[in-house]
Design goal:
The protein is of the alpha/beta class. The protein contains 21 helices and 26 strands. Among the domains are: about 200 residues, 3-Layer(aba) Sandwich (Rossmann fold), CATH 3.40.50; about 120 residues, Immunoglobulin-like. About 35% of the residues lie in helices and about 20% in strands.
Amino acid sequence: MTSGNLSRVTILLAISLATWLSATARHVNAQEHRSADEARRVEALLADMTLEEKLGQLTQRTAGEHATFEPDDPESEHQDLPTLIRKAKVGSLLNAHGAEYTNRLQRIAMAESRLGIPLLLGNDVIHGYRTVFPIPLGGAATWDPELVEQAARVAAREAAAAGTHWTFAPMVDICRDARWGRIAEGAGEDTYLGSVMAAAQVRGFQGDDLAAPDTLLACAKHFVAYGAAEGGRDYNTVDISEQSLREVYLPPFKAAVDAGAGTLMSAFNEINGVPATANHLTLSRILRQEWGFGGFVVSDWTSVTEMVAHGFAADDADAAEKAILAGVDMDMSSFCYLDYLVDAVRQGRVPQARVDEAVRRVLAAKHRLGLFDRPYADPEHERAVILSPENRALARDVARHAIVLLKNEGNLLPISDKVASLAVIGPLADDRWAPLGTWSGVGRNEDVVTVLEGIKGRVSADTEVRYAKGCDVDGDATDGLAEAVQVAKQSELVVLVVGENADMSGEAHCRSSLDLPPVQQKLVQAVHATGVPLVVVLMHGRPMSIAWTAEHVPAILVTWHLGVECGRATADVLFGDFNPGGKLPATFPRTVGQVPIYYNHKNTGRPPGGDRYTSKYIDLPSTPLFPFGHGLSYTTFELSNLSIAPAKIGAGGRVEITVDVKNTGNREGDEVAQLYIRDLVGSMTRPVRQLKGFRRVTLRPGESRTLTFSLAGQDLGFYDRDMRYVVEPGVFKVWVGPDSTRGLEGRFEVQQN
Ligand code: GLC
């Protein structure tokens, strides 16, 4: 390059840098200008509001089927919805769907209430709005945060077009007990995976600018440790150490807050004797003082008044005071704030400033969403975006990535196009409801492609497909078994679809058993007894103890509840059009008797082993049926060349870990390389493994890629006996592997500073 060219390039670079800097400055200025304008408008409104109107802003109620539109007794406190809105006795609604309906409610607020403050409309958009994606546990099984973010983005586009401003998602509760029905809604048992998925969903829901018309305000829930409920029974007592609270259950919320989540929801459960909805440690000290969270906290549904049942509040007035003083800003559906805080403020038990602080946060959120300037939805736009072909295509892709190949003896899968006859059997094989899973929003059964439909749409013209339901999902009727056996015997191969209905997991749907319902177990064994090659497709909302199936059936796919594109995604994997690469986000136990069972457990002084006097059951192996992070492929992979540098770091240092991943098979496929560490000795006992990184990569046959992970000293710490976060010197083991039980092993050392 001549000096002349060089100077030209330099000039061009300088110009583009200056352009970028000024654009950034303008953007920052615009943001600062907007937040200054927002603050001015909030303060002006606040100065105008009566105490009753302020408490109305802190009140949310349902606009769903329980809402009343008939003018009821004018003396009643909780009148019909239009009256409540007109009198500014409610600032937010949930369960209102569709541009037409939400506009009707919004017009009352804007045109008929004294100050015309727009309503904040919230809904449970948990895994899709009308285009239903896999349940979040299935999303986590993709180990692909970018894909999960895209799904949340589409959910936001559809819900915002239909008049929703705020989603009560992501649910980020870590759960180590698959009896708990809500394990379906989260990212499973691991804190690191859960944190990555929490942040991805917040980014997807909120987009780059909340004021854009296709965003949703996110709400990380349920704050906090709801998934640690004793016995895996919903709403049950949570009694855990503060170390566990801070090391296992809080980090996904911190990840959501760091990703910019605008709200959190307080949980139903107590935490060590203090309900989450009035817990100063979590709501004030940790969330506000330690994390600097600036958004607002909504209670869960009636969790304010439920503190009376907890025996923590004497009555609703007491509950209201305890909740707002601890840091809950908005009361979902219990009306305690509206009914009792006027007196509490007037009698000095609740400072006016605390009410104003809560109202400021709610009004600021409405401003950030642009509701004052753009309060209405557009029905035309709603019709254009809902359930679009592009949205369905993404739902199919997420579903394919969520599928986990548990077992594939003799490479029974993928099914050859040349198969002459196929039997599709099972109570969920042609079911439209189960694939929607729990919390399916406005999803509709008729939108679902069933597994049978997916297979019929995929097989070649000369393949004969027979179908038999075999039995119901539950119950005792076995009169369908004979037909199922008959159909199996007439076929070359059987695809048997069994598992759980959409209402066998989710809120208040916990199970004391993780087995297949007995009648389905009978079906599996009857079809297996025919000797016809058998593939089991599991459709479920939680890890299941399918020990008999795992022992006897050669090929098993875990498919969760995959959403509207269930059938096509399952057929894509069954026939090899997509090579499964999902991994388990939660441990599959051999039996419920092993629960709680999770990979990142402590070693104890007598770890499970051959010796008689060790921590084990006398009637069961100590290992799980399938471990956290497990998942196979139709191809094979090899990890090699693990390198860790430097070998020694200070507590403030950083270690780079690299590994080569190679596709050693003859088909393109995905591997999820997982990075685990173990702190061998600490002033507190440490887990035998902890996930600290992962990467899902797609490799062509023979292709190799070098992956690099970077760990900072701060990633290696824990809370000591004095609740200080410490990074202690010592040796750390490292593994990079295909699941939580295997991998290349190395070590590095943290040195005393
Ligand atoms: C429910 C759930 C919560 C949900 C809320 C509103 O009880 O616990 O996750 O967002 O009520 O439906």
